[in-house]
Design goal:
The complex is a heterodimer of chains A (108) and B (515). Chain A has 108 residues and is mostly beta strands. Chain A is built from 1 helix and 10 strands, in the order E-E-H-E-E-E-E-E-E-E-E. In chain A, the strands form 3 sheets. Chain A has a 4-stranded antiparallel β-sheet, with no helix packed on it. A 4-stranded antiparallel β-sheet of chain A has the order 7-6-4-9, with no helix packed on it. A two-stranded antiparallel sheet of chain A has the order 1-2. The longest helix of chain A has 4 residues. By secondary structure, chain B is of the alpha/beta class. Chain B folds into 3 domains: 244 residues, 2-enoyl-CoA Hydratase, Chain A, domain 1 (Alpha-Beta Complex), CATH 3.90.226.10; 194 residues, 2-enoyl-CoA Hydratase, Chain A, domain 1, CATH 3.90.226; 34 residues, no CATH class. The chains are: A mainly beta (108), B alpha/beta (515).
């Protein structure tokens, strides 16, 4: 029962101690590089449908203030402000569906 | 009725029950490349040793017209038999009967055979092939699952529990295999997931096929839920028979001793396998095969976290568990998955009186933001916990690199390894020469006229002074520096000395491993 690679590919794996000749795993090669998250862009953690939006553009909010509620996983979830600031743009309105990659609210 | 009539009546009832879900359902099962439940049991167990129980159990459903239906054996076959003359309790779900769905009596049959296995202290083998809970029986199906999970937990560490996934095993049902010790999957036949593709599409809008979501390969290579991967059901049964030969019946016994056999020294020569160049990789499995009886190494979790190798082998006829860093993959580093893999195997061996042999050759832990965010701290701690907690005989052989945290984690003297040996090529230090140059000698290199030259010289000095086993041996952290060819002899001798090992641990209900 072999791993599927017919002939293992050797890479020079750079480690603190030096470069080791070794094979790499699929998981290691497919890992996502780390991107610093931008706190001014607010995503939801799950796709859903907007129920109600509480803020408008140019509104000033404090950290923890509710921005909107959305329905997902059989519950009404509250999306709160992650920082003190002014709303730059709201990309959704009540009744709209959205997915995980969509920016819902942007801060100035 | 006369005796003959009663006997014929019994035969008739049995024939009726053996039909299972009927010809049509059986044809469908065979057409998808799967054996029927009874065929599987008969294939796995020794010939003529299977004794079936609870054949005439009737299901308890009354709603949704269930009382009008006859489900033979309520969709599961339970009984006892032997594998290589060792007793086992076994159950196999019958997909042809109501999709193998679990109802109240179905679960009762399974829990009954589980209770028997616990009482008789014999291994339990479960063949899972079910559509899930029987919706018509409502909460009784959930009750059934709950009772099974509770017993899985009570039996954990008392008797070996083996799950064979030969069909769908979805939703709550998949937690029973997750609680057992070893999970076997077969390519294209096994399917394991909590939420299926339809639910994922409805809630998240992500599209994925059943095979890509929870097929055999996914669990053998990516999630680590499956310990053994086979291409066919027959191959799977051969693997199960092999596994059972290595492990004891219960936690109060040791595994059956086999006749002593020397390793295949013509095929596996340690001097030829081990490279001269320190940066070159080698397959540590070849080293294991050069050491163990008959070069017979039975690897567990072969396709997952390949940067560490775990599995069973024999030394002088006695089963031992090997844990070894694999320099061939990711330079043998420890990371989230390999820590989980090693810790789980160590705890199984400790629970079932199987001595542990650790082969060490790692540069350290895998760096990376994804590793840190995935909790490599928590997961790495599991290895330390498992090794420290184990009271079976523990032998360690340091082959090459053993730097920093990796040296400690791989069953060092400090985690109470009984015997620690090192090869002359061992490099035991707090960090490698290159890393040391960056920290200890930083000022010296900066201040010198020729930094590159100074750096090379200092690295070489450090290597000569510290990258060897003698500094650790000077403190007694290594018991002996041995020739690679002497390894097998030293290990076998240590095993015989440690045969009656008794080590105390402080009294407690149980520890709190970093789950």
């Amino acid at each position: 029962m072999d791993i599927e690679n017919p002939a293992p590919e050797y890479h020079l794996f750079n480690f603190e101690e030096g470069n080791f000749s070794t094979t790499l795993t699929k998981k290691f090669m497919n890992r996502k590089p780390y991107i610093v998250p931008d706190p001014k862009k607010v995503f939801a953690f799950i796709p859903g449908t907007i129920v109600k939006v509480f803020v408008k553009e140019k509104h000033k909010v404090k950290k923890g203030d509710p921005l909107l509620t959305f329905q997902a996983m059989k519950m009404n979830n509250i999306l709160s402000a992650p920082m003190n600031g002014k709303i730059k743009k709201i990309n959704v309105k009540a009744g709209e569906t959205f997915n995980r990659a969509q920016i819902l609210v942007e801060f100035v | 009725m006369s005796l003959r009539q009663k006997r014929n009546d019994l035969k008739k009832r049995m024939q009726e029950a053996f039909k299972g879900g009927g010809e049509q359902a059986t044809e469908k099962q065979k057409a998808s490349g799967k054996m029927t439940a009874r065929e599987r049991i008969l294939e796995l167990l020794d010939a003529d040793t299977f004794h079936e129980y609870d054949l005439f159990v009737k299901h308890a459903g009354v709603d949704f017209d269930m009382d009008k239906k006859y489900l033979p054996g309520d969709g599961v076959i339970t009984g006892t038999g032997t594998i290589n003359a060792w007793p086992v309790c076994i159950f196999a779900q019958d997909f042809t009967v109501a999709g193998g769905s679990l109802g109240y009596m179905h679960a009762k049959k399974i829990t009954k055979i589980m209770d028997q296995a616990m009482k008789m202290k014999v291994p339990l083998i479960g063949i899972n092939d079910s559509g899930g809970a029987r919706i018509q029986e409502g909460v009784n199906s959930l009750a059934g699952y709950g009772e099974i999970f509770y017993r899985n937990t009570q039996a954990s560490g008392v008797i070996p529990q083996i799950s064979v996934i030969l069909g769908p095993c979805a939703g709550g049902a998949v937690y029973s295999p997750a609680l057992t010790d070893f999970v076997f999957v077969v390519d294209k036949i096994s399917k394991m997931f909590i939420t299926g593709p339809e639910v994922i599409k409805t809630v998240l809008g992500e599209e994925i096929s059943m095979e890509d979501l929870g097929g055999a390969r996914v669990h053998a290579e990516i999630t680590g839920n499956a310990h053994f991967f086979a291409e066919s059901e027959k191959e799977c049964f051969e693997q199960i028979k092999k596994l059972v030969s290595f492990i004891p019946w219960n936690n109060e016994k040791t595994a059956e001793p086999f006749p002593k056999k020397a390793p295949k020294s013509r095929q596996y020569k340690i001097d030829h396998i081990f490279p001269v160049n320190q940066m070159q990789p080698y397959d540590v499995r070849d080293i294991i095969k050069a050491i163990c009886d008959d070069s017979d190494f039975f690897e567990v979790h072969e396709l997952w976290a390949a940067n560490i190798v775990v599995g069973f082998a024999r030394l002088d006829g006695q089963t031992v568990g090997f844990v070894a860093n694999q320099p061939l993959v990711l330079a043998g580093v420890l990371d989230v998955d390999s820590s989980d893999k090693a810790a789980r195997f160590i705890r199984f061996c400790d629970a079932f009186n199987i001595p542990l042999v650790t082969l060490v050759d790692l540069p350290g832990y895998l760096p990376g933001v994804d590793q840190e965010y995935a909790g490599v701290i928590r997961h790495g701690a599991k290895v330390l916990y498992a090794y420290s907690e184990a009271t079976v005989p523990k032998m360690t052989v340091i082959l090459r690199k053993a730097y920093g945290g990796g040296y400690i984690a791989m069953c060092s003297h400090h985690l109470r390894a009984d015997f620690v040996f090192a090869w002359p090529t061992a490099e035991i230090a707090v960090m490698g020469p290159e890393g040391a140059a960056n920290i200890i000698f930083r000022n010296e290199i900066k201040a010198s006229d020729n930094p590159e030259e100074t750096r090379k010289k200092l690295i070489e000095d450090y290597r000569q002074k510290f990258a060897n086993p003698y500094v650790a041996a000077a403190f007694g952290y290594i018991d002996a520096v041995i020739e690679p060819t002497e390894t097998r002899d030293f290990l076998i001798h240590s095993l015989s000395i440690a045969a009656n090992k008794a080590e105390a641990r402080p009294k407690k209900k149980h520890g709190i491993p970093p789950f």
